[in-house]
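Before relying on records like the one below, remember that each one covers exactly one chain. Contacts with other chains, cofactors or solvent are not represented anywhere in the record.
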Amino acid sequence: MKSVISALSHYEPKKIVTNEDIAKLHIGSKNKEWKIYTEDDITAKALRAWIHERKWADQSENAATMAIEVVKNMQEEYGKEIFDNLHSIIVGTFTGPYFYPWISYHVAEYLGHSGATNDINNACVWFITGLHQSALLQKSWSRWKTLIIWTDVMSRAIDFKNPKTGVLFWDAAGAVLLDYVKSNFGVQWGVSASFPNHLLSAHQKSPFYGSETMDTTIQLNGPDVYKFGVKYVVEVIMDYIKKNNLDISMFDYLVPHQANANMIDEISQKIWIDDKKVIKNVHINGNTAAASIPLALSQHKNSFSPWDRILMVSLWSWLAIGLVDIIWGS
């Protein structure tokens, strides 16, 4: 018995935002060193991460409406009966429109679902940890179908005038339906690891932080996140391969978290995987947090063949890293 991805889908807002559009928001803004950024500065910052465009949710959309849209897309492609015998709905987000009710309740209301619902906030790493933990739960239950959704409107968590984050994070939703069936396909194994040091190199304060004047947008120490993210992701991958007597050549695809194309390239080079096997969408979507891997999977699903072995790895800064090894089904 294996946990198998029986359906997957994604949703992207329709508005495309180019580097030139972002640059116009920055013109005349200053950083703490009082440097005035120009349009060329901002475009160069985006291109260093190989981001050319991204999608922006409009004012009628939020993380909950995008979650429902991705479910509608799944129904349209696979049929409404795909959700028959659905046991649970789990949503990963940290940009929900409400602290409560959870987004999973909004999805449950749309589907007429009366089973288990849950929202989890684990930032960018949530796709992998959610998939891994759901597979473990299905194994203990020996049954049940789980809908897992990742949805974030990152454009509302950033300061457009901060070039460290304003060019990187954007909006999308992705979803997989995880079934538990007798099969050799599906989730082979997963790893969830944490490296809790330098906790505030990537953070976002909540309204309950306690300060009367504070910045609640995402704060990022890019060089630290890049350096330690590459280091620990490579360590987790190589440790998994060694402990399970595998070889990187056994994997047909690597689907990494889409944080930065240079970061993806460096990780790929350090684990000796052919660049042709590496799935990327950061150039057209930016960093969409937890939605980045399911979005990339859904966008490229027609490229995969039965028995393809896919290694997926995500990271939140370097504090949490998740890895899942799956064999693609028919």
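The chain has two domains: 2-181, 186-327.
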